[in-house]
Amino acid sequence: MHFSPLLRSILFTGIFYTTMSVSFANTDVAQPSDAPTVLLQNQGYAQGFFEDNLAVFKGIPYATPPINSYRWLPPQPVQEWKGIRKTTQFSAICSQKANIWDTDPTFKNTSEDCLYLNIWAPKGYFNHPEDQKLYPVMVWIHGGAFISGGASLNTYNPSAIAQQGVVVVSFNYRLGRFGFFAHPALDKESEEDQSDNYGLMDQIAALKWVQSNIASFGGDANNVTIFGESAGGASIISLMTIGEAKGLFDKAIIQSGTGHSKSFPPTPKDQAERIGSNFAKKYEITSNRYDALKQLRALSADEVIDDLNIQNLQPDLFAGLIIDQTLLTHSLEESFAKGSFYPVPLLIGDTDGDGLLLSKTTLSDLAKDLGTDVTAINHVYNPDGKKSENSVIHQVIADTQILQPTRLLAHQVAQKNTPVYRYRFSYIADTARPYSSFGAIHASEIPYVFDTLHTVYSSVSNQDEAMAKAMMMSWVNFAKNGNPSVDGFPQFLPINQNPQQLLHFAMDGIRFENDPFEKRLNFISSLFSKNHQTPKQDTLIKKDLPKYPTR
Asked: Which residues have a catalytic role annotated?
């Protein structure tokens, strides 16, 4: 059995033998002789397993299950356990209704009892803990519009990343109405004014757990990089504005982050409470007093979900991120415009076909909502008239939702004299090219970052694999030393030095260049500056793109 340094230090005291004799007496599981075991602060012993030169721990609780009377409460500390807890299986992901394209087996196992995290650490630390080498830490925050997803999807397997000398952590956080729900009665119950954004509270709790425990897994608590895509990126943008999260991470990677966009602003608290009351009325719960919470907490998980998913967003019944006046005091757009955020070195970017699925609209309607006209849009997006209207609509919405907000956010952070690296991903796997009329779609870069292409595509070319290795190493190098440059590829300079340039992971290679979409993004920026308006949500609909057909 391999013990962390903390356990090894206890080994030579008389207390150890007494404790272990009691511990083993309280577990009915045979203890493997080669299993990594750590002592967690205020919890107990956790035992993982070795695999592919890694020590792996799955399903470690970082908070009390948020069920029954704990539903819609901030995450509570884990109760200590006796014996050695086996942490070798993923927990259920947080309660949700799967979408038609959610084919990963993970989606078959959901529960409100979901606040668990997973760790992949280099095996060498457990073999030779006396070396006391601490590895950089990367913490993954999954996306899914704050409605769906989970830490244990096959695409998110970080083994390849961890094998580069990094400790990787992933975790679940409450989703949908379990994670983002406002109601007048919840405000009256909360003594610390902590309500509404329970999913963000979970994320902060997970990061605090990392600070307290990651050294026992060989991780450096002073070198933590959080990375996330879509709603995971929006989470990072949010965490950068939250005082309680300051100091819990040292660098950040934002992939196609939302929330900072005019298209997806957090919901004001009064509006969120009206939405929560609308939901309660569905079940004839009309009181705003304590008895309303008792009735709401008596609802089954399926009743709380109520068919909410990315295909059925229920804008009158689900608020998403909420300006709760405690964690989020302003819209994210306003916080960054005012400089009210905590800067950390940043790697940030998007895909060339980014943006979320658009509703059925015409270019004329879209132009009207943006405060311009079709001629002006075509002058920038379709000067030779060769593109279809659908293609132009998609590009405009992608730029409006993600590409221009990403560029703006990058420069706002850079103004704090913090290194900011900007990228663009436009590579498309060989097998997906027949379905790529809109370019590299939202979330298509994820299997390249994790080097998990085989979980997505039926066949993978040498070029695909080379792109994945290069992209993964950019992320790893940024986590290790704050610079995402990779040997053998163009030097990646921060926008502090080259404001218009980005690293482009392109179909024909990797190059450091001026943003090829600069004219388009300047056009969108000018529209927002001129009109000071938010595009209508019925045009820029919050909905993830389906994945490429791959098999």
From this structure: 230
